[in-house]
Amino acid sequence: MAKRPKTVFACTECGAQHAKWFGKCPECGAWDALTEEAPALQGEEKPLGSGLHGGRPTPLPEVRPGGEARLPTGIGELDRALGGGLVPGAVILIGGEPGVGKSTLQLQMASALASGHRVLYVTGEESSAQVAQRADRLGVMDSPLQLLAETDLDTILGRLQEQEAELAIVDSVQTVADAGLQSAPGSVAQVRECAARLVRYAKQTGTILCLVGHVTKEGALAGPRVLEHMVDTVLYFEGEQGGQYRLVRAMKNRFGSVNELGVFRMTGGGLEPVTNPSALFLSEHEEPVPGAAVVASQEGTRPLLVELQALVAESPLTQPRRVAIGVERDRLSLLLAVLYRHAGVALFDQDVFINVVGGVDLSEPAADLAVAAALVSSLRSRALPERTIILGEVGLAGEVRAVGRIEDRLKEAAKLGFKRAVIPAGSAEDLDNPGLELQPVRRIEQALELLLE
Ligand code: TYD
Ligand code: MG
Predict the structure, then answer these.
(1) Which end of the chain, N or C, is less surrounded by CB atoms within 10 Å?
(2) Any ligand 1 atom below 6 A from CB of 29
(3) Chain segment 387-414, per-residue pLDDT in tens
(4) CATH code for the part of the protein at 73-275
(5) SS3 for 87-154, per residue?
(6) Ligand 1 binding pocket includes 137 (Cβ within 6 Å)
(7) What is the ipTM of this complex?
(8) Which CATH fold would you assign to the domain 292-452?
């Protein structure tokens, strides 16, 4: 018989297990993602026929559809991100870096719902007293919410059942441990097993389950990433370190559209919904400044005007720096190549920095043309025209490609006082009176000439 390996190395990204450590997971290619842990025990295979005592199939017409009985959380921006509220039996994963506000939002939601529903808040990270201190700060001390400071999975499941909780919050899933497993709390095996049993419980009983999970900047900690496929909805918290705004984005949602965005402001009394955020991410300049461009981004069903800033400066390094915050680095490299090839703008010897105001993640290609324009504007120390928004995806051939939902974006820009829009020619057809002057362009060099000559 082959000897059982003492430990295995599990990938925190894809969950694959390997006999030895690799710097890069051979399965999914993630770097520095393998952690050592005890192997999962293989159960004995049972004889055929032993599975006939469990659930029976039901003909589809006899099954009552779950329907759309949604439970609004009472927090508008959270309901927006959830696609209209909580669905019975749904499991929601709330991920984000430590300190971003996950526990705050969960406590606000739990206390709001506790007046009409049985809510159990399981706290594994903080003591009940610490949670109460937060509740006091949030002004929800009177809420009939049940608090349980516990990390043992069996106890948690037992109490959920005893309390017949309709909503359960587990903060955080990384602190929960199944005593039957050897691995340490927070390891991939523990997090996955505990989450699986909690999810099973939620599905069997119709309990709404919110799992809070930490991710570090590198996404290295075991948790959210290995759980994403087990849950119905994944919400991620984004926000600038030290900044007051928090964005809650649905990355996956079985019950609604993805990329719906909830916007909050962190105040002394908790997270406050920001219902009209479209002007939030424009910085206030008296005069237009070089390197700044405004793009009308589309976040789910809502247009959001965002300013992005570029700084181009001669580099002392042999390998100049390429730093992109809020824009994908690969996208930036691609744009630099297109700028050189099709617009004759060479930035090889320049450090290039891109930053999106307010910590917004501007990964949609519709921002390409604005990024390119901001770069050239900074390089030439010439500001882009005032009150102008720039929209368009840039292709490798230098062409400016159409973007989706152009009408909504333009309307929002007009509402906020923008006068002019540089847009892809392909998007300009069938636009009736968007309320600002349109300048359709077909190519990147044409757009740059229009904006900066
Ligand atoms: P928290 O919800 O504990 O973050 P997480 O659970 O994601 O780790 O939020 C922590 C931060 O929020 C902390 O720095 C304090 C701040 N905060 C406020 O500014 N106002 C408040 O009312 C509360 C409760 C927290
Ligand atoms: Mg917390």
Answers:
(1) N
(2) no
(3) 999 999 999 999 999 998 898 899 888 8
(4) 3.40.50.300
(5) CCCCEEEEEECCCCCHHHHHHHHHHHHHCCCCEEEEECCCCHHHHHHHHHHHCCCCCCCEEEECCEHH
(6) yes
(7) 0.97
(8) Ribosomal Protein S5; domain 2 (3.30.230)
